[in-house]
Design brief:
Elements (H helix, E strand, L loop, with lengths): L1 E2 L14 H4 L71 H11 L7 E5 L5 E5 L29 H6 L14 E2 L9 H9 L7 H18 L8 E7 L2 H9 L8 E5 L2 H13 L3 E5 L8 H10 L4 E5 L1 E2 L4 E2 L2 H10 L3 E5 L11 H4 L3 E5 L10 E7 H6 L12 H11 L8 H17 L1 H22 L3 E2 L9 E5 L6 H10 L2 E2 L1 E2 L8 E5 L8 H18 L19
Parallel strand pairs: 4-16, 6-7, 6-8, 8-11, 11-12
Antiparallel strand pairs: 1-14, 2-3, 5-13, 9-10, 12-13, 15-18, 17-18
Helix pairs in contact: 4-13, 5-13, 8-9, 13-14, 14-16, 15-16
Bound molecules: pyridoxal-5'-phosphate.
Length: 554
């Protein structure tokens, strides 16, 4: 499955469209923030590009208004109060640090030295808040460097390092090339900074309803009388999966079809809520064999089939429409984990007949991580309504009930994360989902072409490559630790492979508010590290060995 693309062939089928990529959203020829030629324009029903606020509600199809009319933001046109702008990248560097210090009120989380994933000793926040024993050192007093010289920033700067803010004190701007969390656009950042609302206010209900309405076309819900319901759960994508598996997945025999890390995680979660769970496991990077799925469904009557859409550990897209057809033919429902594909890949919930779909805010939807999304057919939800109580917090019925009856969430939601999701959906809606997906796809094609030119191998699954990320095989002379450490000094963050692929691969993400040149620049840096490595073949590079578990975390 690892392709060694030959330059002449253009790297296999995945690269055939590279010329076409130049037509997609202007990826190669524009220089605005998202790589798109189209910017949200100001005007009636549009975004205010300065404040990031919605000036008037944008027209959204087929959403019951439920009588909530107020604009959802309460910031002022002129911008947020001083304290809210503490981390603005426009502030002079010193002011930023001082304002952060004010914000933290002289308290700093306890830190312990740890060996980081990339092999260098670093500082990790192990806990925060009163229970973690907040202490109050003088934040503005710069920590002493060995030899008695003070580093340019204070403790916070030391702590946050290159993540602090873009270009801070000459540091490179952070570029997140991991498949979530992702870079946030200026519009999303502004919206979060300028919006403080209470979650029991009508404005927040409006925000939820608008978010649900904007999400529908993203997942392929077009019909006005659609029976699909949408719940937003504060938590990561796993929270959405668990809410589904604890309700719909607890009713009857469940089959989990897996071919990677995230399919295997679904199995583990399903088994926590249901004893009657079987697994149809394929090797990582192996395509799901539909005949085997059909055989298993004939062998046994299942209530639910569960499968991942984009297996993030390998970069492979699974054939959801075909699996859904098989499941339905055998009287089973289908639940799909689309956590990393939602916003980047075509998803056609209605057309494919998906019964339940899960997603997350902080990946291809380009918002902050922290909202799990469930899209579920009303009839499927009703079937599981008679189930014993189930979990308290991750109760899908409670979440859907609150959304339907009050346009609210049952508990205090991560309000600002919800604001970021609303803002990013707004941006995508204005740009058009096809265009947004096209840009992500073009980034992927561009990266794969460059990798080919660099002589690097990457995972290639003709016809089922995702656009979300590219899994690149590390050359033998290069360790992930060394590569990641070098990239990090340039502000670039990449993750390594998972499971059996840990340390053999690294991933380059194509999602989030990447700028036009981010992928190109990152690959240049990879090339620079490769050059060092090949020059040192006579005297192999010595890398710090780190202990790592065979199972890596996302
Ligand atoms: C396909 C898939 N499912 C589930 C998860 C878990 O999501 P989270 O880490 O947001 O809980 C991920 C995370 O990358 C994923 O890619």
């Amino acid at each position: 499955m690892i392709a060694t693309p030959s330059p002449s062939s253009g790297g296999g089928s995945g690269l055939a469209g590279i010329r076409g990529a130049q037509d997609l959203g202007g990826w190669t020829s524009t220089n605005n923030h998202s790589g798109l030629k189209c910017r949200p324009r100001r005007g009636p029903g549009q975004l205010d590009s300065r404040s990031g606020q919605l000036r008037r509600r944008i027209a959204i199809g087929n959403v019951p208004n439920q009588g909530v009319r107020a604009p959802y933001v309460n910031g002022t046109e002129g911008g947020a109060p001083q304290a809210q702008r503490a981390i603005s990248s426009r502030e002079p560097a010193a002011a930023t640090t001082n304002q952060l210090a004010d914000l933290f009120e002289r308290a700093v989380p306890v830190q312990t030295p740890v060996v980081s994933d990339i092999g260098t000793p670093s500082t990790r926040v192990v806990a925060s808040g009163a229970s973690a024993g907040l202490r109050a050192p003088a934040l503005r007093a710069p920590a002493r460097a060995p030899g008695g010289r003070s580093p340019p920033g204070g403790r916070l700067e030391e702590l946050l390092g290159s993540y602090l803010s873009r270009g801070h004190r000459g540091r490179p701007r952070p570029v997140l090339l991991c498949p979530g969390p992702v870079l946030l656009s200026a519009h999303v950042m502004r919206a979060v900074r300028n919006t403080n609302i209470g979650h029991r206010e009508p404005e927040f209900s409006q925000l939820l309803l608008e978010s649900a309405a904007m999400l529908k076309p993203v997942v392929g819900i077009g019909s006005a009388d659609s029976s699909y319901r949408i719940a937003f759960i504060t938590g990561s994508g796993t929270a959405a999966n668990e809410a589904v598996l604890a309700s719909v997945g607890a009713i009857g025999p469940t089959l989990v079809v897996s071919n990677g890390e995230f399919g295997e995680r679904l199995l583990a979660t399903a088994r926590r809520h249901n004893r009657d769970v079987r697994e149809l496991r394929f090797a990582w990077q192996e395509a799901i064999d539909l005949e085997k799925v059909a055989e298993e469904l004939e062998r046994r009557q299942y209530h639910l089939v569960v499968v991942v859409h984009h297996e993030t550990s390998t970069g492979m897209l699974n054939p959801i429409a075909a699996i859904a057809r098989l499941a339905h033919r055998h009287g089973a429902l289908i639940a799909v984990d689309a956590i990393s594909s939602i916003g980047a890949e075509v998803i056609a919930v209605e057309e494919w007949g998906i019964d339940v779909l899960t997603g997350a805010s902080g990946k291809a939807l380009s918002a902050m991580p922290g909202v799990g999304i469930v899209v579920v057919k009303g009839s499927v939800l009703e079937q599981s309504a008679s189930m014993p109580a189930g979990p308290q917090y991750l109760n899908l019925h409670t979440h859907c009930g609150y959304m339907r009856d009050h346009a609210q969430t049952p508990n205090t939601p991560a309000v600002h994360v919800f604001v970021s999701l609303h803002a990013s959906l707004e941006e995508s809606t204005l740009q058009g989902m096809a265009r947004v997906r096209g840009v992500i796809h073009a980034r992927a094609l561009f990266a794969r072409e460059r990798l080919t030119q660099m002589g690097l191998e990457y995972a290639d699954y003709p016809g089922t490559n995702s656009s979300v990320l590219t899994c690149v095989l590390l050359p033998e002379y290069l360790s992930f630790e060394h590569l990641a450490r070098h990239l990090k000094t340039r502000g670039i963050v990449v993750y390594n492979g998972k499971g059996a692929l840990t340390d053999r691969m690294f991933q380059i993400g194509h999602i989030g508010a990447l700028r036009k040149n981010d992928t190109r620049d990152a690959l240049r840096q990879v090339q620079a590290v490769m050059r060092q490595g090949t020059q040192a073949t006579a005297r192999p590079l010595q890398f710090v060995a780190t202990e790592r578990s065979t199972r890596s975390i996302s």
